[in-house]
Amino acid sequence: MFMNFRRIHKVQCIQLLTTGLMLCGMIVFWEELDHHVVSHLRAFTYRYLINSYDFLNSSFISNHHHRKDGSNSVDVSKGNYPYLINHPDKCGGSGDGKTGDDVMLLLFVKSSPENFEQRQAIRDTWGNESFIWTELGASVKVVFALGIHQDGSQRAKLQAALLLEDQAYGDLIQQNFEDTFHNLTAKLILQFHWGHKYCCQARFLMSADDDIFIHMPNLVKYLRQVMSSQSGGRDLWVGHVHRGAPPVRRKNSKYHVPYDLYPWSSYPDYTAGAGYVVSGDVAAKIYHATLLLNPSIYIDDVFMGICAKTMGISPQEHVYISGEGKAPYHPCIYDRMITSHGHATDLRSLWQAATNPTVHSIPKGFIGNLYCTVVRVVLLCLPYYQNTYSCMAAFI
Ligand SMILES: *[C@@H]1O[C@H](CO)[C@@H](O)[C@H](O)[C@H]1NC(C)=O
Ligand SMILES: *[C@@H]1O[C@H](CO)[C@@H](O)[C@H](O)[C@H]1NC(C)=O
Ligand SMILES: *[C@@H]1O[C@H](CO)[C@@H](O)[C@H](O)[C@H]1NC(C)=O
């Protein structure tokens, strides 16, 4: 009896102590807690219970620069800078309304002046237009979107190197803005304006980071499926979707957005900027949105979400388009993957492995499917590999 009472007493004491400690911890780590838990709860509640983003219309549409005719004169206040390197006839037209080539996909790689090696690796692997044409029978135009180097002292030297590179490959599109993280929205606007002016016949437009791997055969196959589907390849915006993402308020974060720039608790849905695809009609709508909206939000994929929301477009998820992490290396993944993020030196070896004909030597039928499902569950559903494809992808 006595022993029992003492034990209860002890348990209560411990409970009280832990509660106290937790409260103290919450006060001390409030910023962390707010960043990791509270802001997400708030954003999710907003996204799933209220889900109205009408405030975007009144807050981001700036009437002063409203240009209904979509005239193409340079308007820097809208993030539209003059071209320094351009290829108006890349898609076969010359930008004066001529139809141009039949282009399936216009693929913009967001690069930076100093990333010569990344661009070369892309040209040698998934970005090889003639490989895509001869081996896959698809017309894909790959161009690199750039600004100017942010360091004025290095700019002239780098610019000379860029001109040489462009003479050799003819695939750089450069505008006169500083190539910085906070100017990514200018780069987004570049892509949609260039696409509208010089390649508006393209069936699809893709935007990708320059450290991404794209499994081109799988992407082409997927886009063909989309074109032959009921929608006929219209009304598509597909990628790794962020739903109900809260603005980051922590000042030391790269993604920090102050309250006066975006006071609301949740962004409209958007796809991760690492890589996403839109159909031509959606690209045209985004282009028109960029003429109306104030590009003050410097996170490009969030700005894309705002543009899309005001045009009534919502993103779709593709489980094999990566938001952040690298895909696991395995033939059962290569069979399905579309993009994988965070590659540099391994781009060439991955391209070799992922497009190797032996990938298809995995036995088909029930046994092969079962084998690959088990492999994918191990690779994607265990907490070991995070941030690549969701566990759901194992079963698709
Ligand atoms: C305002 O926003 C809604 C969606 O939030 C959209 O459907 C509508 O077209 C927008 N109106 C204008 C004038 O842009
Ligand atoms: C691109 O692909 C073509 C056709 O497959 C090939 O002949 C060429 O060597 C490739 N170019 C590069 C830079 O890998
Ligand atoms: C963006 O580029 C413009 C034009 O070069 C420059 O004036 C501005 O400082 C840049 N903004 C940021 C945030 O880097």
Strand count, sense and barrel status of the largest sheet are: 8 strands, mixed
Count of alpha/pi helices:
13
Portion of residues in helices? 40-55%
- CATH domain topology of the largest domain: Spore Coat Polysaccharide Biosynthesis Protein SpsA, Chain A
* Shape, principal axes of CA atoms: globular
Mean pLDDT: 89
Give the second-level CATH assignment, the architecture of the largest domain. Answer: Alpha-Beta Complex
**Which compounds are bound in this model?**
2-acetamido-2-deoxy-beta-D-glucopyranose
What pattern of helices and strands is seen along the backbone? HHHEEHHEHEHEEHEEEEHHEHEHH
| CATH level 1 class label of the largest domain | Alpha Beta
Write the SSE topology.
Elements: H1 2-28, H2 30-50, H3 55-60, E1 83-85, E2 105-110, H4 116-124, H5 129-136, E3 140-148, H6 152-169, E4 172-178, H7 184-198, E5 204-209, E6 212-214, H8 216-228, E7 237-239, E8 241-242, E9 270-271, E10 275-279, H9 280-292, H10 300-310, E11 316-317, H11 331-334, E12 339-341, H12 347-354, H13 365-381
Parallel strand pairs: 2-3, 2-5, 3-4, 7-11
Antiparallel strand pairs: 1-4, 5-10, 6-12, 7-10, 8-9
Helix pairs in contact: 7-9, 7-10, 9-10
One 2-acetamido-2-deoxy-beta-D-glucopyranose binds at residues 123-124, 128, 130-131, 134-135.
